[in-house]
């Protein structure tokens, strides 16, 4: 579907949704709400139209060292596919390169690519780990994600302070307990700069 047609169709459905919720859609505050919600939803789910390989777009560099590379505290904003409500938090990524490394901004872009979809946190975590491993043929990858889910905080069990943690460890991060421990230690005890 062409983007303009898609936006129009979603806006129409949001209008119907507001009516079904018992809203008076003629009141001023709701005048442009269908269009705004349509734009917002299409942005927040736009990752499905992105190819993660295109997102990386060649930002893979040669490296001689095979140290562990860690990126901490990457912001995550996604939508839970069960309630269409946001979950958000941060994730930490580590990998051991074998000859290739990923441009650091690309990891953040990959997070957005997979997060801007209807998701569950477990799958988001696994997809990110898989894609990083594939992109640089990493010897091992670890992803830990900590998120708050509005579907738990605003409704349901109404647990405002619970944080869900998911992890995905591949390759040496999975097979070697010391490598995994080093990763966990680095993401927990890394210094906060700035
Ligand atoms: Zn949910």
Report the strand count.
Answer: 7
Order of helices and strands: HHHEEEEHEHEHEHH
Shape: elongated
- Radius of gyration from the CA trace? 20 Å
Q: What structural class do helix, strand and pairing data support?
A: alpha+beta
CATH architecture of the largest domain: 2-Layer Sandwich
What do the pLDDT scores average to? 92
Question: What is the gist of this entry?
Answer:
With 194 residues, the chain is α+β, with helices and mostly antiparallel strands. Helix content is 43%, strand content 26%. Strand 2 and strand 3 (86-96) form a beta hairpin.
Structure commentary:
- This protein is of the alpha+beta class.
- It folds into two domains: 3-44, GTP Cyclohydrolase I, Chain A, domain 1 (Orthogonal Bundle), CATH 1.10.286; 58-192, GTP Cyclohydrolase I, domain 2.
- Helices cover 43% and strands 26% of the residues.
- It has eight helices and seven strands, in the order H-H-H-E-E-E-E-H-E-H-E-H-E-H-H.
- The chain has helices at 3-20, 33-44, 52-56, 104-115, 121-136, 150-153, 172-175, 177-189; strands at residues 60-62, 68-80, 86-96, 100-102, 118-119, 140-149, 164-171.
- The strands form two sheets. A five-stranded mixed beta sheet has the order 5-2-3-6-7, with helices on both faces.
- Helix 1 packs across helix 2.
- It starts with a helix and ends in a 5-residue tail after the last helix.
- The mean pLDDT is 92.
- It binds zinc ion.
- Zinc ion (ZN) binds at residues 80, 82-83, 85, 149, 151.
């Amino acid at each position: 579907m062409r983007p303009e047609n898609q936006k129009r169709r979603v806006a129409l459905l949001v209008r119907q949704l507001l009516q079904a919720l018992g809203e008076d859609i003629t009141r001023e505050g709701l005048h442009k709400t269908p269009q705004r919600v349509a734009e917002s939803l299409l942005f927040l789910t736009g990752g499905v139209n992105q190819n993660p390989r295109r997102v990386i777009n060649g930002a893979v560099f040669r490296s001689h060292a095979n140290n562990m590379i860690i990126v901490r505290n990457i912001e995550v904003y996604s939508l839970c596919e069960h309630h269409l409500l946001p979950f958000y938090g941060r994730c930490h990524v580590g990998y051991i390169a074998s000859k290739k490394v990923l441009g650091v901004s690309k990891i953040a872009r990959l997070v957005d690519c997979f997060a801007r979809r209807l998701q569950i946190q477990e799958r988001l975590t696994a997809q990110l780990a898989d894609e990083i491993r594939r992109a640089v043929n990493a010897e091992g990858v670890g992803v830990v994600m900590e998120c708050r889910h509005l579907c738990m905080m605003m409704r349901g069990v109404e647990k405002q302070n619970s944080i869900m943690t998911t992890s995905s460890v591949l390759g040496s991060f999975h097979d070697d307990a010391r490598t995994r421990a080093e990763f966990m230690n680095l993401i927990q005890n890394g210094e906060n700069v700035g």
